[in-house]
Amino acid sequence: MPPSRQISHVPLPDGFDPDLANADLLPVPPEKRDWSWINMATVWMGMVHNIVVYEAASGLMALGFSAWQSLGVVAVAYGVLFLAMWFNARPGTKYGIPFCVLIRSSFGPTGAQLPVLLRGFCAVFWFSVQSYAAAQAVDAIMSTLSATWAGWTVAFLGMQIKTWLAMAIVWTLHGWITSHGVHRIRNFELIAGPLVILAGLTATIWALRVGHGLGPLFSQPSKLHGAAFWNAFALGVTGMIGMWATFAVNIPDLSRFVRTQRDQVVGQAIGLPLTALIFTPMGIITTSATILMFGRPIWNPVELLLALNHPVITVLGGLTILLATLSVNVVANIMPAAYDLINLAPRRLDFIKAGRLVLALGVLFVPWLWFDRADGIYRILTIISSLLGPVTGVMLADYYVVRRQNIAVDDLYRRDGRYAGARGWGHGGVSAMLIGGAVAASGFVIPALAPVSALSWFVGVVIGGGVYIALARGRRAVADGTSAAVT
Questions:
Q1: What is the pTM of this model?
Q2: Class assignment of domain 28-373?
Q3: Of 176, 245, 281, 399, whose CB has the highest number of CB atoms within 10 Å?
Q4: Residue 409: alpha-carbon gap to chain centroid
């Protein structure tokens, strides 16, 4: 296809392969990197406040942790995530490039498609599940406001007609927010993040009044002691990291728009671990109040709204859930999936077209079959951790150890550049990812290695990064030996 017919309508620099670049994949010029630490913080605030994170405390307490121990698990998990995202975000801010381009330095332009496809699959999956949660909230709102809506209970393809309509509303809202690209997303998050915090604080104040304090969940003792505690602690931390393991690899998709390294680290510190440590007790306190009101804990926010059975609360609470879901989905799921799709077909897709394709693919993931199967979702989280941990390890090892924080950016857009490797398969990234993933996931197949799977993300990072460094040094030794022989 001639350059004039490229989807970006922007001339590419000399030597850039049109199958590897378009306007959305090119480096963001320094003068256009206008995100401050406030933007980065509000983006994370919007992402951390979602139904899956809200319900995560219930999963930890189901393992036997006390409420205070659950907060300890959250603190450790998000502390580790912050460090991983801080370091992995740095090249994005330095060079203004997205994840799908940065990863070519370790995987090559062809090999990079493997982790990109894996990340894209995860993004579409979570977009689908989160959107279905928002559709339930919309259904609750509309059923409260309209008896006609509530009566549309005829099923079609495994779901009621009214739920299909609710999904259509949610999908349309996602499409509107992403219809003007990254800048509209930034402005939306600037409003949505703080609003969701305000709504959460309101619910917490209500719960404190109902429970006359922190409530019964905070007085529940731990059921874990000794080795059982530490095993569960490792599993809990890994599971929490699994919720964001996908974003640990593609954080450059956001950091490429940030003005300085200071802005990205301060914004992430405020928006990620700090917000998580505030939001998690909100969920525990609110759920404590449900024990006093209904005799059982209700962790699902939509179920809680229906149980309260108050029109005003249902509408306002449902709108809050919808806002929170839109906030996390557009940044954590649609945005990375769109870049990943652009990376597959830069001649045909730009950000807006790719975003629409994500919306369509989300329906094909049939989220109504997944949402009520928590055990399956958590198993997928653990598997994702074991596969994406090695990718994170390879990226960190490549940038900080092998490349020493220096990348020839132009070569990332060429199939004959220094990062091409053998026929586009890079310099060991694929091998390191597969070996690290196999070791991290070994406990799912071999019962005796179950403790390895409890730490799958950590094992994957260490093994993936270590193998990649070993392969890089091996190639360097061979190259040095060849040079000496020739001399």
A1: 0.85
A2: mainly alpha
A3: 245
A4: 25
